[in-house]
């Protein structure tokens, strides 16, 4: 299906310990996390809050397990704070990832985000005004230039509870940013949970997609989150997300479309759950087996 060596498979540490809710998986160590990633058959990972900040220490731990760093989340605040604040933090983040050998930088705009707020996820989603769209586009183009200085790309992460969540908003952002400076992260779970068809984004923006997150959704839990006006993090606690093969997304057509568009890069399982309920290694193996079955890799 995919061309040989075109795709690398990784898994994010959020199934072991949650950066936004550190009490979830608080007893799980960094060493346990990366060891179980390797044991489950993955090649790489993104960076979590328990990972060593020293690049040499991190490299040694990963090399022992034959793992690589694919990227790491970066929160921008281009719509709500002075640009220079985001730039200074971004340069430090960029340099760390460059030292670790990553080729892409995951950027998510957190201005007005309700991801960490105790408000209804499906009802209180923020919307940018035209001035904020302009600030976002200008800022992302500049961050893209800074990434290119190191031979890297920024990949924008559309996300539930933010101003870039829907297909319409993704289309707008892609239209007002420079395609040579701003690429796209494709996240199956966030599109599906938002009520969108992930395939539509694949087909519309295939040439901009340079990073993929594989996240599944449990329809019954998502429906309760919607009905009960639940906040994002509470929805995570209740299990609205899970790994591919354990939820309701049909990944077969998604993998077929990615292969047909000759996708090259990382595909990372990212499924935030309570590890006390969803054993991280067990669910990592479920995901790896499902990808092997559906994507033939």
TrEMBL record:
<dbReference type="GO" id="GO:0050114">
    <property type="term" value="F:myo-inosose-2 dehydratase activity"/>
</dbReference>
<comment type="similarity">
    <text>Belongs to the IolE/MocC family.</text>
</comment>
<dbReference type="InterPro" id="IPR023952">
    <property type="entry name" value="IolE"/>
</dbReference>
<dbReference type="InterPro" id="IPR030823">
    <property type="entry name" value="IolE/MocC"/>
</dbReference>
<dbReference type="Pfam" id="PF01261">
    <property type="entry name" value="AP_endonuc_2"/>
</dbReference>
<dbReference type="InterPro" id="IPR013022">
    <property type="entry name" value="Xyl_isomerase-like_TIM-brl"/>
</dbReference>
<keyword id="KW-0170">Cobalt</keyword>
<comment type="pathway">
    <text>Polyol metabolism; myo-inositol degradation into acetyl-CoA; acetyl-CoA from myo-inositol: step 2/7.</text>
</comment>
<dbReference type="InterPro" id="IPR036237">
    <property type="entry name" value="Xyl_isomerase-like_sf"/>
</dbReference>
<keyword id="KW-0464">Manganese</keyword>
<dbReference type="InterPro" id="IPR050312">
    <property type="entry name" value="IolE/XylAMocC-like"/>
</dbReference>
<keyword id="KW-0456">Lyase</keyword>
<feature type="domain" description="Xylose isomerase-like TIM barrel">
    <location>
        <begin position="37"/>
        <end position="287"/>
    </location>
</feature>
<protein>
    <recommendedName>
        <fullName>Inosose dehydratase</fullName>
        <ecNumber>4.2.1.44</ecNumber>
    </recommendedName>
</protein>
């Amino acid at each position: 299906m995919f061309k040989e060596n075109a795709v690398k498979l990784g898994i994010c540490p959020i199934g072991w310990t949650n950066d936004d809710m550190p009490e979830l998986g608080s007893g799980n160590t960094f060493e346990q996390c990366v060891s179980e990633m390797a044991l489950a058959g993955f090649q790489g990972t993104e960076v979590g809050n328990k990972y060593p900040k020293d690049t040499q220490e991190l490299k040694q731990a990963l090399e022992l397990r034959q793992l690589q760093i694919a990227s790491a989340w970066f929160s921008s605040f281009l719509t709500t704070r002075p640009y220079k604040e985001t730039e200074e933090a971004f340069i430090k983040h960029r340099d760390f990832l460059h030292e670790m050998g990553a080729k892409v930088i995951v950027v998510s705009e957190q201005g007005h985000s309700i991801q960490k707020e105790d408000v209804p996820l499906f009802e209180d989603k923020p919307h940018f005004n035209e001035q904020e769209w302009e600030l976002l586009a200008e800022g992302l183009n500049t961050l893209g230039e800074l990434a290119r200085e190191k031979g890297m790309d920024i990949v924008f992460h559309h996300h539930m509870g933010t101003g870039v969540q829907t297909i319409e908003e993704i289309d707008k952002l892609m239209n007002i940013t420079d395609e040579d400076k701003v690429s796209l992260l494709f996240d199956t779970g966030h599109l599906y949970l938002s009520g969108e068809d992930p395939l539509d984004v694949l087909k519309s923006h295939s040439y901009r997609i340079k990073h993929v997150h594989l996240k599944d959704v449990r329809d019954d839990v998502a429906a309760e989150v919607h009905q009960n006006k639940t906040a994002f993090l509470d929805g995570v606690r209740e299990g609205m997300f899970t790994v591919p093969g354990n939820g309701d997304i049909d990944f077969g057509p998604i993998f077929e479309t990615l292969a047909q568009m000759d996708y090259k890069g990382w595909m990372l399982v990212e499924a935030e759950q309570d590890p006390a309920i969803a054993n991280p290694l067990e669910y990592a193996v479920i995901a790896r087996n499902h990808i092997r079955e559906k994507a033939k890799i």
